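User: two proteins, same treatment. go.

Assistant:
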Amino acid sequence: MAYEGILLGMGNPLLDISAVVDEDFLNRYDIKLNNAILAEEKHVPMYEELATKYNVDYIAGGATQNTIRVAQWMLQIPGATSYMGSIGKDKFGEEMKKNSKAGGVNVHYYEDETAPTGTCAVCVVGGERSLIANLSAANCYKSEHLKRPENWALVEKAKYIYIAGFFLTVSPESIQLVAEHAAAHNKVFSMNLSAPFICEFFRDAQEKALPYVDYIFGNETEARTFSKVRGWETENVEEIAVKISALPKASGTHKRITVITQSSDPVVVAEDGKVKLFPVILLPKEKLVDTNGAGDAFVGGFLSQLVQEKSIEECVRAGCYAANVIIQRSGCTYPEKPDFK
């Protein structure tokens, strides 16, 4: 099987500014743990404070980019993955390019002349993280970039496409173009619920993309928000996963499979009206460094096996392995080579 360009991701590339902070910091900026939000006016001074007063790691991030980097790391086949998104023409943008290329991902960034590269504050307390994204240039992605022949060629080459729900806030038109292409050519299209606010405030864009989604990922909080917004009147994650997998599909080539992670509780996989539960690798509390990127890494591990046409069991096992590696390190980073057997 030819693996070059087999997996394509599109999303919001952000440079993670990651630091361990304290409860007081969270309270001052009105930040809840284990949440992901878009930065508001009140959060603007926070980035400067993090960079000057804390011990900060800069890591190429953004949900989809994390997933693609992890899939590339798991595959260990140069150029197996490609990625598109928008960065600024600045030193953070250069840092991002360097970082991604070093990871073996074929990146085709749109470089915006007017906005700085997007950043994401990753505030870590007791190993748990909260994300505050300042999209800046990431918000400037245009479908015109996608339609350029050298970029559309990546879409045509890919057999698997993954887009995190966060991209619904930026370029739903690009998502639709790629989703319709995938359905027309029997490709596998997957997305992520990504955050409660996406399910709540971007429901229309999400509804439009959902019929094309073959694999939908998310965590238990996002699944429950999805259920609440639709008036399903259930908090039971297994029930919700089955209901999501049964929503209408645009193409009958692939059935929809719902994959919901639940932190240290088993992973829920729903297909054909049935649920399977897969235990995760439990980690002693003292080994937990930082949960940032755990969900992204899970999807990256999962996709690395899916593109090799492995079983769902194998995909989940690889997802759990990748997430387990990531949470023992700062940010979405990993050792040089995986030791996934």
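Protein 2:
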Amino acid sequence: MVTDSKPIPHHRGLIVGNYCHDILLHNNLVIAETLGGAASFISTVLDALSLPFHLVSKVGTDFSHAALTTTHPPLVVPSSQTTLFHAHFGSNHPDRILNRVTSCSPITPSDLPTGSRFQFGMAVGVGGEILPETLEKLLDICDTVFVDIQGLIRRFEDDDGRVRHVGLKESGFFHLLPRVSFLKASEDEASCIDLEEVRKWCCVVVTHGKDGCEVFCRDVRFRVDPFEACQVDPTGAGDCFLGGFAAGIVQGMGVFDAALLGNFFGSLGVAQVGPPELDFTLVQMVKEEMHKRKVHDSPDSEKTDDWLVFRKPRDQNQFYTSLVTAKNIIMCHIQENGRNLLSSTKGIEQSNGKTRVVINSVKHEPISSVDSE
């Protein structure tokens, strides 16, 4: 299946990853269903920053968020269901337990556009939909490629779809690392790679949630400060981070500033349920600050060794302060519109339709308990 046989001249980026249905459960009680998938969170960030891109995503005929994805519509596979995740939270398991309930068809090389070249590409699978040959095709047609490691190392238990990880060397993707520009991993996912070896091939960014992130590239290593956040739902935090980070790099910012921008968007993501609502007018001040921080006109791969790209800027505090100011204004807007409210005891209908916070299961069959595990 080919998305478009004609060139796509006006898109700087190519995003590859399936949309999903996400169901959030607290002590096995369904409290929200929302549009999910890394592609949905990243799309929100890149759209807010006015960075044009083409998206390749697959869903089934049961996809319930078509109205929210008209700007970047998915491919509908008649013979498949939309990928569905259950995210379990509760007193007996404070950390999220993630189960893949159904999965859509994988994205194949023939699904990617032909006849076009892109300034940047992003492989952001969540349910096993990224194949080694698909990533290889993405690397062939994009100048700079960002990869979320979750799309490479996630595996799923046969009985309940519980997410687990395999080592990067056993994933089938390891041989492609020399062609990857940036690899993003959570702290847990980073334990599945030989960081000292992988950083020789590509720049690795490890997120630490409320503690910010670390950047590793060859002989360079530094930590980037976090932003305060009132966490409502951690789902998609890393995706929002990657969207902000990639946008910074593509817009010519240094790696340190781009990572700070990633932390900024990650902190906005956890304050809302589902893909964050970002007022474009308010984000304009962020775009203006980004323009001031440009180091290069483009993320030319030949410039990745340039000391300007990896150095810590002397005026980093100024950029951080500007982002804090922008964040405070954006959060006030979010709170006024009720987007940061999630209750396990009251039903809430979000006005923009991205999230439905409900009582009783969205799916009529019983939800399997995980408390005994």
